[in-house]
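WP5 quarterly update. Target: Tetracycline resistance protein from transposon. Source organism: Tolypocladium ophioglossoides. Length: 428 aa.
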Amino acid sequence: MSPSPPRIAIVGGGPAGLTVGLLLHRRGIPFPIFELRQKPTDEELAKPSGMLDLHEESGLAALRECGLYDQFLQLTGDCAETQKVSDKDGNILYTDEGELSERPEISRHALTRLLSSHLPAEAIKWGHKLLSAASSTTPRGTETELDFGPHGKQAFDLVVGADGAWSKVRSLLTDVKPHYSGTQSITATVRQATAKYPRLAAFVGRGTFSALGLRHGVMTQRGPQDSVRVCVFLTTADECFAVSSGLAGRTAAAAKDRLLDDDALLGRWGPPVKELVTVACDEESADNPGAAVDIKPLYTLPIGTSWEHKAGATLIGDAAHLMCPWAGEGVNLAMWDSLLLAHAITEAREAAGQDAASFQSALDPLMKEFEVDMAARAKEKAEETYSNGQMLFGEDGAKAFTQFFLEAYQHLAGAQGGGDTQSRPDVI
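Structure tokens (predicted):
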């Protein structure tokens, strides 16, 4: 009987899944990517989306190995690396021009398009919702069966869970689940901001803007279509805040009065920041008539989440180490995971050839090392993320954040004088 080649599947078509898929594709290793969403249209991918700053040792390193670094640089003009910090009344306490930054920004949609456009069209199975995953022992080794409901069941020798916060693949490895972080997020977008609202566009600047105070925050980033993406972060112990506050189901325009009048929310904030939120909510509703306001609780996995290695499955990205966006590390850790996992899979395939059982035997020690290393990296970044969140959403987050930047710049300026060229810390 001829040997049976190893079957590899990736669940999730976000940055983590697409990156590991592209790296395997470049090495001639076959796989499908199963993605819950339907295939996005070009029009959808052209819309403003969240901006992602990629770091040298992780996201940028993965793009270089994918052969996409030069193409990536052509997609980074929408959001500058500048920072502005204001207090709750709109007084600017800190501003820079990104002088010491080496973390270019790309929109999430642009990164998705960049990665997916270099994969064969048939590699991504759109509209596949994973209902469950189960592992069993067979003559060829550990086999993991994925149930996609109407799309049927399929078995694989290795399943890579890149399926995000509420990962179904995670249940194969650990019972740990995300918990509520204590923060609610409301998002709205202003397109063509410079032409429509030149004063507000100048107020928030060309890059990232953070207004902080009273344990809340209003943060913005520039993006495609000369947009300003506005995120309101509210600290509350109420996980069901959207429903209990009455905001769930309302349009953004209808929700803004509650946000801006309630002293427990943004009622005590100054006119410049309130105007920013007002314009964002009105523009969001004008662009998406009748759509409910985008409000959601933020979740995180416990710091230090890890699991005992089990053959046949692993996790990367948010499925492995979900955290809040206070350190800008989520996508970077995910792409770093993908880079190192692709190395491990490639080494095992080269050692095992076309035999699935030999592949699992060769992969297991490499996977154990990968998962231990990933857990250690994620723990460090999760601790940094938690610390940043405590700083940003204290009673006077603006003062604390300003001090953070001033101290960081002093440290890095001194380090650069001694020949150290590391980039500055980034928080969102």
